[in-house]
Amino acid sequence: MAITREEVLHVAKLARLELSGDEVERLTLELGAILEAVGKVAELDLDDVPPTSHPLELVNAWREDEPYDSLGLDAVFANAPQREDDLFRVPPTT
Amino acid sequence: MGVSSVSSVVDTLRLTAEEAAGLVERKEVTGAELHRAYLDAAAERDPELHCYLRLVDEPNGDGVPVALKDVISTHGIETTAGSKILAGYVPQFDSTVAARCKAAGLPIIGKTNTDEFAMGSSTENSAYGPTRNPWDPERVPGGSGGGSAAAVSAGLAPWALGSDTGGSIKQPSALCGNVGLRPTYGTVSRYGIVAFASSLDQVGPVAKNVRDCALLYSLIAGRDERDSTTVELPEPVRLPEGEDLSGLRIGVPKELNEAEGIEPGVTTAVQNAIELARSLGAEVGECELPRSVEYGLACYYLIAPAEASSNLARYDGVRYGLRVDGESYREMVERTRDVGFGDEPKRRIMLGTYALSAGYFDAFYGQAQKVRTVIAREHAAAFERFDVLVSPTSPTVAFKLGEKAANPLAMYLSDLLTIPSCMAGLPGLNVPCGLSEGLPVGLQLIGPQFSENTLFRTGHALEQAIGFDPVPERLR
Amino acid sequence: MTWQPVVGLEIHVQLKTRTKMFCRCANGFGGGENTQTCPVCLALPGALPVPNRIALEWTLKLGLALGCEIPKRAVFARKNYFYPDSPKGYQISQYDLPSCVNGRMLVPSSAGDHEVGIVRAHLEEDAAKTVHVGGRTGRIGGAEHSLVDFNRVGTPLVEIVTGPDIHSSEDARRFLQLLRQTIVELGISDAEMEKGTLRVDANVSVRPAGSAELRTRCELKNMNSFRFVAQGIDAEVARQIAVYEAGGEVVQETYDFDASSGALTARRSKEEADDYRYFPEPDLVPVEPPAELVERLRGELPELPSVRIRRLERELDLDRALVLVTGGLDRLYEATVAAGAEPLPVANLIANRLATSAGDAVDASQLALLVGARDRIPRAVLDDALSHIDEPGFEAAPYLAQEAVSDTGELEPVIARIIDANPGQVAAYRGGKEGLLGFFVGQVLKETGGKANARVVSELVRERLGA
Questions:
Q1: With an 8 Å Cβ cutoff, is B360 touching chain C?
Q2: What ipTM was estimated for this complex?
Q3: Could you say which architecture CATH assigns to the domain B3-290+374-475?
Q4: Interface of chain C toward chain B, CB-CB under 8 angstroms
């Protein structure tokens, strides 16, 4: 199961990874080999088998609607790359 | 009491956590002295081994210190998950397991090295350089929790916590010659654990022996209201005693014991252990897990990267961690992630994004979820006949640094034997069962969900019978 | 050719639970920027979501009120996308297994009940607030940077999706009024569009009248009142008809509706197509509402607005019924009628004279007394009484005691004075301008300080001028 260079670039966009040219080449090869190996799951005919998304068969884990104390601004911004007043600052979203 | 007299009672290479607790209780040493003894050992040996990413000088608590893998959030102590993208990140809250250690009086002695975001089987994927195996510094300690496993074996921590997604506790314990438990999924809180693959990640103990391992597990296990996937233990943890295995039914899954790539020395050590179990009264029989082993790795390498691709989306340079600036928000995010993530996280993010993307979901992720059902059913069928399944933990003993680093698929095979039971949410215990070429071999014990007490009983009995010396020969 | 509009709505409702959907931070407005945040809100490494039981129950309750089936199992999924308002890089939302499916709401209209299908109602979490700063215009395009406040992130949000069953802007508006009233009466949200606690997007297409086809639709966003929703739909319908009549094809697009100019602006299309890579949220377990819970919630439902409109329509007309019910005043109306007052005067008085907010506070028996005495007591006294009627312990009796002056002996001299003082109006009245009667009555009421009985005055004036 091969993956094309274009597909690698498309997936990198979805995943927001700015890959260098070398990385694109290398990942195209590596992902091709890995997909070949993991594509093995397609060999099994599992039409009647339900999917498992969770190892424990738990349901209805919820909590009561009781507030706790929020973090506080010092902790909120303790690791912030860029703070402006009490807001997180980022480059323009265009 | 002076330093020299402390080191005369505290031999960090040999002292178990239980013994250490006894020394403190009898006031033969103070908690602070104990802590200092491990720091001294680290000062001596960690420059070579690089088990720790950082040490905590002042103990916070009077009990037996514990080392935590650096995916475990610790309030006020930098937590990087072995990644550059979290360099300098200081959590403002404690993970539940860190809080439970503190509540039990265990001071944190340091944060141990890990493959970046716990992705790897050798600890070579750490952005901060590899950890080395205390038995042979030319070799890897396994991974991703190589730092915790090596620290315990080298006497730099009495015990430690690791995290296991597809083998990251069991496999390094095997390669370093100590005891590691991957608990039943849902018995230990993941709150505050830097996530890799949420439906697989579990925190568990690494220790010198089975009793220590059980003791540490008892301190961290149980339902946490901050993690909706946790449950209360159905029965309390029992510290194992005795060597009798009568009445225990041990299954030997053919495929896990005869897989291609298992080294002969590993097979020999495991078979000896199985024979010992029989002599201790266990009934031993063969069983099969055909599709679990054949398709487990493929299943894992679809589900874990898919979840990881989503779990690692939060590292965007907005609220914490690395930011590499750009003209626009999007450019900033793409640069930050390109610079911040190493090769292995990038590979898995790409793989997981692909497996979830439109047009591929059913063939990859959807199908892998069905394979997961098949794996769980095969194990459930085996546990109708057996209480415990045994196999090697790792197909090989510790390999050399760089040996597999260039070939991701070869590296992925290191977890061939640990992955299937992880997919089914089952507990697994690694117990050292001998040496091959002078390096430790690990025996994997797998039980049904919530069977930790059975695994402890089995592991403890075998441990006594095998008489493995957990101190690396070169450090004795 | 005549064209039929085909409209489906997507409505987002913020639930007013005490805490957020997946963490225990306080929910709602009020706190300073980023003060209502925690590791879960900020997506700090290792933070995990834990669902709010009340938010789950309220979603079921709303679904039941909309006639939905409650499937055995609902599952939260991750919708993956990067944006500063999405701290985890994904939104947790029910996806292929929502909490409520397959409902309907009856919208009364003059042509009978109109059924709007509810395809689904599901629970999700709201995003953070991003503000764009700098640049010449201050709009997104000119922004030099953006600022993020995470207080809103994680607010529980129910998304309701209707079928393409609405065929006029007026029907859309009526549906929304009824839906809003239903939500408000359940006590689960304030559902105010101006505050953003209720948000509406519309999917609009047109087709030749009589056809059943579904043509390419466009999505309208950014409409912050029911009136603007109606205006936006009208504008988009007109645009699409013009496109088809000019021989063109409608292209699927998202538009912002600017209410001040009436203009529709197409959003810039994205670089790559949306691919949200949904998968089941592994940090959460499925929701399987126990049958007892569903039955309890069903039992707690109030009688629904559409049912009440139908009932009121039997004694009133549809418009009055709608006004009373969507104003939340129909229960007071019914109680007042039950206390013995005549329906139509009660309806008029409540609809015209009482604020929506007064509805619950008014004692119907006291209101009934006022309605019964409305012609006997002076207008000024009635006004005074109505302005106090929602106060606790209000009694009508003191107002009723201030009967209007009906004694002809007392009124006639006043009337005579007014007639003498306005010879011009008298001549005009006698010349046929009978509408001037009101002028004379008004003058008399004014002279008597509002205490004269208007009906008696009116009779006396007519008699006098007619003579």
A1: no
A2: 0.97
A3: Alpha-Beta Complex (3.90)
A4: 39, 42-51, 78, 80, 82, 84, 87-90, 146, 148, 275, 277-279, 282-285
